Amino acid sequence: MPARLVSVLRRSLRRRWRLHEDRGATAIELAIVAPVVMILIVGGVQAALSMFANTLVLAAAQQGADAGRLYDAPADAGPDTASRFLGRAAGRLVTDAQVSQEQTPTTVTVTITARTVTLIPGPWSRIAKTASGPREIVTGGAP
Questions:
Q1: What is the mean pLDDT of residues 79-104?
Q2: Domain boundaries, the chain
Q3: Which parts of the chain span the membrane according to its record (predicted)?
């Protein structure tokens, strides 16, 4: 009798052990981890695109301010230069760019507002950058 009891207990333990095997655990782990990894990758690419677009828009504003502050520069020199720079450097990364310029007798300010291409929609698609500088003025004559 005890031998038969031991045999029954062994069979019972084997059945329980089969229920606790790790078969299929890898697929479940992948199903949980893969979306998180993909979101992190896409988020990293989005951050890089946003930072690059911000840098390009700021560089365009600086180019426009530098062109607009020159001595005897035409009134539209700043916006034209900024728009050309943005068109060449940014391509389709920056869209809906609006360039404006404010002039005073001593300073020139160029402001660019634009949108950037996004993989994940959100407020980071809007960019607004401003650059300003003193106007070149002739202050003295030749002796």
A1: 94
A2: 27-134
A3: 24-49
